[in-house]
Amino acid sequence: MANKRSFTPKWYEGDTPSGTYRALFRWHDLNVFKHPNRGFYTLLRDTFELTDTDFNHPKLDLEVFDFDIPSGLNSSQIQELEGIVGKDNLKTDTYSRTRASYGAGMIDMLRLRERIVENICDAVTAPKNREVLIQLVKYCCAKKIPLTVYGGGSTVTRGMETPKGGLCIDMSVHMRRVIRFNETDQTITVEPGMFGPELEDYLNHAPEKLGAHGRYTCGHFPQSFEHSSVGGWVVTRGAGQNSTYYGKIEDLVLSQEYITPQGALRTPAYPRCATGPDYNQIMIGSEGTFGVLSEVTLKVFKYMPKNTRRFSYLFKTWEEAYTAYREVMQGEFGYPSVFRLSDPEETDTAMRIYHIHGTPADSLLRSLGYKPMQRCILLGSADGDSAYTRMVKRKTTRICRKHGAVVLSPFGVTGMWERSRFTDPYMREDLMDFGILIDTLECAVTWDMFPKVHAEVRKVVKSQPKTICMTHISHAYPQGANLYFIFVIKYQSIDDYLDLQYSILDAVQASGAAMSHHHGIGKQTAPWLEGQIGKSCMDILRALKAHFDPQNLMNPGGTLGLDLSKEQQSKRWGFRK
Amino acid sequence: MANKRSFTPKWYEGDTPSGTYRALFRWHDLNVFKHPNRGFYTLLRDTFELTDTDFNHPKLDLEVFDFDIPSGLNSSQIQELEGIVGKDNLKTDTYSRTRASYGAGMIDMLRLRERIVENICDAVTAPKNREVLIQLVKYCCAKKIPLTVYGGGSTVTRGMETPKGGLCIDMSVHMRRVIRFNETDQTITVEPGMFGPELEDYLNHAPEKLGAHGRYTCGHFPQSFEHSSVGGWVVTRGAGQNSTYYGKIEDLVLSQEYITPQGALRTPAYPRCATGPDYNQIMIGSEGTFGVLSEVTLKVFKYMPKNTRRFSYLFKTWEEAYTAYREVMQGEFGYPSVFRLSDPEETDTAMRIYHIHGTPADSLLRSLGYKPMQRCILLGSADGDSAYTRMVKRKTTRICRKHGAVVLSPFGVTGMWERSRFTDPYMREDLMDFGILIDTLECAVTWDMFPKVHAEVRKVVKSQPKTICMTHISHAYPQGANLYFIFVIKYQSIDDYLDLQYSILDAVQASGAAMSHHHGIGKQTAPWLEGQIGKSCMDILRALKAHFDPQNLMNPGGTLGLDLSKEQQSKRWGFRK
User: Fold this and answer.
1) C-alpha–C-alpha distance, residues A482 and B201, integer Å
2) Banded model confidence at residue A554, pLDDT cuts 50, 70, 90
3) A41: buried, middle or exposed (CB in 10 Å: 19+, 13-18, 0-12)?
């Protein structure tokens, strides 16, 4: 027993040389590691009926990537492109092209682990500035070359995949500069290739770096924060983990510029106006199908980390928990910033990860009626002015207590969650090294449909034997929220994985939820889009597409369901036999 | 002197029989009167260098409306329409057609006072329900009959005017029912012909009228509240006076249904999602040019009038006042609900109307440095949870004091404003009865451009001799606000009035503001729209129009600048010689 307890699986911490399969599919920083802790490991081992010895031989995929797929561009096109961007800024090797076409979705990792390379672009280019970008769009339109955009590569919806090949524009190399900062308006204008940490660094250090009087934050912290770009946030309608206070990206954008086949488009830059439709909200979420985002003006907030107040609660039941959660969101005293409610199964996992499971405190909680597979953790924090955060915490606590919750804050649960908020995905590779697959799907609901969607989707996932299905709400509004499903299964084959994924998407749709709250649609969820938004909204999308991109060159091949192939319409994709 | 003081102008309080010109142009309820009080009257008399005797002979326009303009529909069309809607629900008399085509704008009143009747529809119909509405849209498309919609008739932008004639659908007769109420989601679904008071009555009395547990409010109180429709709010992107807390109508809509020439369109009904562009925000603000709104689902709030906290302050200077105002909006402790800052000239007028002008208190204020034509009133209130409103008021007061303000609340200024918030427009007729014209124009700004827009527009108005120009901010955001101009001039002719209006619109545009914050564009401001949003946004609007309404039958004739005539492009309209 003592021996068993001290066993540690062979989690890989060695080098991941560039040029290998592992380097391609690994989550972001090749030198950062986060391994499952003992509680999580034990859960996995027991769930999948494995033994410690099953964790001795990881499949690391450290082999050198050896595909050599000829580019679809001819040599005169490559020369002409080099003439536009400079020789250093054009790459046609298969590794670079795969990197620019595969995202961070499970399907991308699985394909690389199974040595499936498909739907990659023909070249990757990094324009130096807006003028070069305009030339590139013009050139691609003239030569009928499809065009995709790469920012941070963190899509989990096959957003950049190129079934029709073409040129991929990498915005992250040069186009990541601050264009303007306006302290009176509290806005910053940046090029879309800027990553989250750089943006926050500018804003947090605005006096030193931008000549400002105060310090600011953008308030947008998606899990991919460290390696996703501002442009990616905008074109996919992303959300940060603090969106309940700061808003989703569509709430944070004041204006944008796109380079489209019809020319440059600049949206009006007012917080609200009454001048026809909202042109900003037409362009946000267009996922590269209308044109290339070239500039974004974001609203910013005062940087006041000292005011942040954290809280966490444990409820006896899921129903009490989500009722309290909704009551907070409809309480009209402001909103928490992070506000994250775990369902019973996610709570049990969290209790293990946060080292509460099996402690004397756990025994006490159980004796008080907070029982495993019934109890639910709610954690969060409040941001803003000091009096405001104090009040939001006080009111939230009062509502939670009324619904039978006990305050968990002394355990530091929220702090533990915060410390791992950006690094948890690093565990994905660890698990998959031993054939355990962890993946996520998310959707948007109104409160009334929320219990049904949760139950129906869970039913589908749990119909598979030996499955972990953890669910949380993490982005909320007075009228509804997101629902985020994390499922862990023993990997068998891509086909089996897709069968499960497709059946979850079917269940999301059948139970009335929106197909995405913040991941976007990409090519993965595209076959389900029309089923949700209806033909009349799809027709609006098609009309806008026909207007901007009559030649269908902007991120074509099924994105947003605009030009689904027959195969895609049947919800089955090319790599399936 | 005593004699002079007791003089009261001959403000009309007699009957306004239906069928008269006055009944057509009078603000809403023919039995409600609000006259300028002594302070305002004295200001007007002195500004325009009039004497009391000039206020003895009002021009009342109580003559019977005697136009008889043949309908452009032929008898078989009229028969067919009667077949669809029932004989009782179709009117072709000129009075009804004028009422359905003229709004509540100054230009509408002036034309009726000058006996100019033009651009009226050919018939007015009141569909009984959604099915009849669908038939009407189909019929008009088949017969190429232009179609406009009448709700409350409160447009001030010539929204319903029909330069191309056609059929006007009056939604206010039958289509004003509650369709659904969802207490869990806090939403209400209504037909678009419902007026503000009825909506509030349902929500405030939700336990009695909707079988709910709690009481609710929509939080949307435009000045036209008592006689404007939910549908009008939505299609024009309107705002209520409490929008700084509750949001503009585009923030309050969860979903909509439109009957368009392409069929019925239902928008997704989630508080947020990531499924392409925001289809709700494409339809809101379409001003009847894409189709007819048939159903709206609105977010609602808890009705907690006891929690409302009122406040008012007096600043020494405009700059200190708007700096404090912005600081409140960027303070991150929530937002006031009503939040209304008057510039020096509006403040002086308010001091007279609120009976502070000339009192010992006024002398004291002056001696403390709060001087006429420099000082500025800020009034407002906070709505929401009790602890929240207490905190918002406390923080707002602290910021205002820091910027040199004195607290005015003991004078009950906010209460006085509230009591007259919906009735002030009734004074318009009183003034015009004696040839004094009062009108408004509004725009949207970011904070950085705000002082310039205010100064430039004022300069244009004040370049006219003997002019009152009052300005306030009343709808605010962290990044900017609206700017609302009220100007009072001695009326000379429609041409002179339009010259001034056009020069104000030119100044709004030249100084960088958006052409409307919440009145919409209609046909009045349409010639300026492309100049503000740019050709590329106009092209989006045109593409959407071509998609929904390829025959150009939905509110045609210049609305939103979609089909401006040559005359309109020159910014000059038909009734000008």
Assistant:
1) 32
2) very high
3) buried
**Does the distance separating the beta carbons of A533 and B279 come in below 8 Å?**
yes
pLDDT tens digits for A260-300? 999 999 999 999 999 999 999 999 999 999 999 999 999 99
Residues A137, A138, A139, A142, Cα dihedral to 10°: 120
Query: Residue B362, by phi and psi: left (phi above 0), alpha (psi -120 to 50) or beta?
Result: alpha
> Of the candidates A275, A333, A537, which has its C-beta nearest B516's C-beta?
A275
pLDDT interval class at B1 (50, 70, 90): very low
Closest to A170 in 3D by CA, of A134, A135, A123, A138: A123
Segments of B81-161 assigned E as strands: 90-91, 123-125, 147-150
Q: Is A153 left (phi over 0), alpha (psi -120 to 50) or beta?
A: left
Out of B250, B274, B334, closest to residue A517 by CB = B274
Task: Name residue, tokens 């043949």.
Answer: B70
Task: Look at residues B198, B299, B200 and name the one whose alpha carbon lies nearest to residue B251.
Answer: B299
Give the span between the Cα atoms of B511 and B449, in whole angstroms.
8
A504/A520 Cα distance (integer angstroms): 16
Rounded distance between C-alpha atoms, residue B522 and residue B500, angstroms: 19
Residues of B in contact with A252 (CB under 8 A): none
Q: From CA B11, how far away is CA B576, in angstroms rounded?
A: 30
Return all residues near B545 (Cβ < 8 A) that are at least 6 apart: B289, B290, B552, B562
Q: Cβ A391–B395 below 8 Å, yes or no? A: no
Encode pLDDT of A202-243 as tens digits.
Answer: 999 999 999 999 999 999 999 999 999 999 999 999 999 999
Query: What is d(CA A465, CA A518) in angstroms, rounded to the nearest whole number?
Result: 29
- What pLDDT sits at residue B573? 64
In the predicted model, what is the mean pLDDT of chain B? 96
Q: Do residues B552 and B542 make contact, with C-beta atoms less than 8 angstroms apart? A: no
Q: What does the alpha-carbon distance between residue B162 and residue A286 come to, in Å, rounded to a whole number?
A: 35
Nearest-Cα distance to chain A for B4, in Å, is 46
ipTM of the complex: 0.97
* Chain position carrying tokens 């749990």: A462
Q: Would you list the DSSP string of B38-64? A: HHHHHHHHHHTT--GGGGS------SB
Tokens of residue B34, six digits: 């609000």
Helices (H), ranges, B403-449: 413-419, 427-433
B449, B511 Cβ separation under 8 angstroms: yes
Rounded to a whole number, what is the distance in Å from the CA of A112 to chain B's nearest CA? 27
> What are the C-alpha distances in Å from A480 to residues A97, A172, A333, B89?
40, 35, 17, 40
pLDDT at residue number A79: 98
Say if the Cβ atoms of A237 and B273 lie within 8 Å. Answer: yes
Q: A447 vs B514: CB contact, 8 Å cut-off?
A: no
Give the 3-state secondary structure percentages of chain A, helix then strand then coil, rounded to 5: 40, 20, 40
B contact test, residue of A272, A283, A284, A548 with most B CBs within 10 A: A272
* Tens-place pLDDT, residues A19-73: 999 999 999 899 999 999 999 999 999 999 999 999 999 999 999 999 999 999 9
Tell me if A512 sits within 8 A of A453, measured CB to CB. Answer: yes
pLDDT band at A576 (very low <50, low <70, confident <90, very high): very low
What tokens appear for A232 in the block? 């990616």
Contact B251, B179 (CB under 8 A): no
List of chain B residues whose C-beta atoms are within 8 Å of the C-beta of residue A257: none
Q: Give the largest Cα separation in chain B, rounded.
A: 76
How sure is the predictor about A354, in pLDDT bands with cuts at 50, 70 and 90? Answer: confident
Q: Is the dihedral of CA A414, A415, A416, A417 positive or negative?
A: positive
